[in-house]
Amino acid sequence: MLAHEGVRLPFGLLLGSFLRGRFVGAFTPSTAGLDLYRLVDVGDVSGQRAASGRAILVEKLLGLVALGLVTLALVPAGLAQFFGAGGLLVAVGLGAGSLAALGMLSRGALLRSLAGRLPRRMRRRAHALLDVLCTRPLPPAHLARTLGLGVVSHAAASGVFLATGLALQLPVAPLSLLVVGNAIVLATLLPISVGGVGVREGTAVALLATVGVSPTAATLMAVLGYLAMQPPALLGGLLMLRQRHPRPDAAPIAPSAPTITLAGLTPIAEAPLLAQPVMTRTASSTSARLPM
């Protein structure tokens, strides 16, 4: 995304920025800490905050589209079992809305026409957002690749909770655990708690209670799933600590006295120059005297 905006930075630098952002995000609601840290950090390094902001905004929008597609794909996996008919309609609407938003991103003129029909206050904000999104439209291949990575990322996050549920031997079908994991990921995006604490566990308890899982086991599944995804954040914390306390440089080595080496003789240190007579001039004559 940054390369598309004309911002080219080394992969190691971007990886370090992401890891440190993950550490900050562990103590902020939703993904606000991660996104703001990357915006400031990458913007400061590259000197192109506007381009960095556009890249992050488009990335977040495509991430939400990918999450909607994952939710839609889980409908046959028994999503209605936990959410009923209303939840099923919401999931279908979320997926369909994501596909519609994806299609409209490539039609800037249509979006501007629709934004022009909004009330005056909303119109200005809509045009400002469209200026960001439509300044550099993504090529179809780039868009498909980014969206595919987003789908894999969100599916993997849901799969972590599936793995912890299986490790705890919960009496729940694997696909049902995957649905619960996806619901946890969706719930923690709401900026109502620090790091998703409470929201994550409450979602797991409420959903797994419908299939006979005890609150203790459901809470344990949510907590273990969260901890399993925290190594990148811990690594980011170590990187921040290293930046704050850099390694001291080695003390400079004093140069040794020059030596004189002759063939067949032992090297000796260069002798200091003999004291030279200091010439002083008096009113009557000039005399030489040695320094005391």
Largest sheet: 2 strands, antiparallel
Query: Can you give the mean pLDDT?
Result: 77
Radius of gyration: 33 Å
Order of helices and strands: HHHHHHHHHHHEEEE
SS-derived structural category: mainly alpha
Envelope shape: globular
Poorly predicted regions: 249-254, 260-264, 268-276, 278-292
Secondary-structure blueprint of this entry?
Elements: H1 11-25, H2 32-46, H3 49-73, H4 79-104, H5 108-115, H6 120-134, H7 140-167, H8 174-188, H9 199-208, H10 215-228, H11 231-244, E1 259-260, E2 268-269, E3 278-281, E4 286-289
Antiparallel strand pairs: 1-2, 3-4
Helix pairs in contact: 1-2, 1-11, 2-3, 3-4, 3-7, 5-6, 7-8, 7-10, 8-9, 9-10
Written overview of the protein:
The chain has 292 residues and is mainly α. The chain has one domain (11-244). Helix content is 63%, strand content 4%. It is built from 11 helices and 4 strands. The protein has helices at 11-25, 32-46, 49-73, 79-104, 108-115, 120-134, 140-167, 174-188, 199-208, 215-228, 231-244, and strands at 259-260, 268-269, 278-281, 286-289. A two-stranded antiparallel ribbon has the order 1-2. Helix 7 (140-167) crosses helix 10 (215-228) and helix 9 (199-208) packs across helix 10. The longest helix has 28 residues, at 140-167.
